[in-house]
Amino acid sequence: MPEVRVTPLANYADRIHPVGVLYVDVYPYRMRDDDTLEFLLLRRRADVVMPDCWQAVSGKLRADERISHAFLRQVVAKTGQAPSRLHRLEAVTSFYDEYYDTVMMVPGAAAQLGAGDVRIDESLHQEFRWVSQAEAHELLPWRTSRAAIDAIAEAILNGGTAITAMSMPQLSE
Predict the structure, then answer these.
(1) What whole-number distance in Å separates Cα of residue 166 and Cα of residue 87?
(2) What are the DSSP calls for 7-68, one per residue?
(3) For the chain, which residues make up each domain, given as ranges?
(4) 129-144, pLDDT tens digit by residue?
(5) Residue pLDDT, tens place only, 22-63
(6) Class of domain 18-168
(7) Which residue(s) pair with 167 in the sheet?
(8) What is the Cα gyration radius of the chain?
(9) Are 85 and 164 in contact (CB under 8 A)?
(10) Which pTM was predicted?
(11) Which residues contact 95 (CB under 8 A, 6 or more apart)?
């Protein structure tokens, strides 16, 4: 077999753009008494970036913070509730951020919330809604967010090994 010649990656160092993890997304959900699934969506304020946009919980990591801790911190900060269960998502969202001129990788998680009151961060959001999977599809502007909702619904409603494999141990801040 002929030897394959590979150019060292260092030869392209001046052409490689950084990839960053700055944000996390968390998709809060709850099970209703009739075993249907609902998702919590937050509507951004009109005077912030992405005005009036519906989204899941989203936020920035702190310096030296573990991604798994950021999932928990963000859901508590944006909803006022600690999740009873936390599941990592299989897919990671990526997008090009023109401001930072980098490709952002956004890990995601699902967070099971209880029946308690939701307290939103009013500096960023103006309202919240518990919605069905179909309603989430109507409100969420990004295909990747709708795909995350679908993946969560499939794993939770089908249960079994998929949801067990996605489960994360409960974390403390």
Answers:
(1) 5
(2) --GGGGTTTPPPEE--EEEEEEEEE-TTS-EEEEEEEEPTTSSSTT-EESEEEEPPTT--HH
(3) 18-168
(4) 999 999 999 999 999 9
(5) 999 999 999 988 888 999 999 999 999 899 999 999 999 999
(6) alpha beta
(7) 87
(8) 18
(9) no
(10) 0.86
(11) 103, 104, 106
